[in-house]
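Q: Hi! First time doing this. I have a protein sequence and I read that you can turn it into a structure. Is that right? Here it is:
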Amino acid sequence: MNKLLKMIVYGLVLWMVPFFAAFPFVNPQGNYTVPETFFKSVMVVVGAATGVVLSVAYFASVKKNFFGEGVVVGAIWLTINVAIDLAFVSSGFFRMTFTQYFTDIGLRYLSIPMYTIGMGYALKNMNK
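A: Yes, that's right. Below is the predicted 3D structure, encoded as structure tokens:
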């Protein structure tokens, strides 16, 4: 798989895993079946674990420019995740305003480039 396609596919997977992991915690009417803070904590953990696993898988084939790769893949994954979410917000599937989205969900996606850039930086320093 070429590098750009791998970035895109992994970015889609990064969005899909937490999305489907949320289903047991939300009823068909869109209400939480558990306390909201617990739900949000689970989503952060699922998203971070998925992102780290995908980052490890992505960087396994990277041989140089680790830091730059971390920046690029983090930016692409962040963009993919926010874009899909915004499509759901604008369609009404996620019942919230854009402001609510960015304060409740969108800001959390900033963790994506944090771990990809951090991994790239660590690999850069290991390979000096």
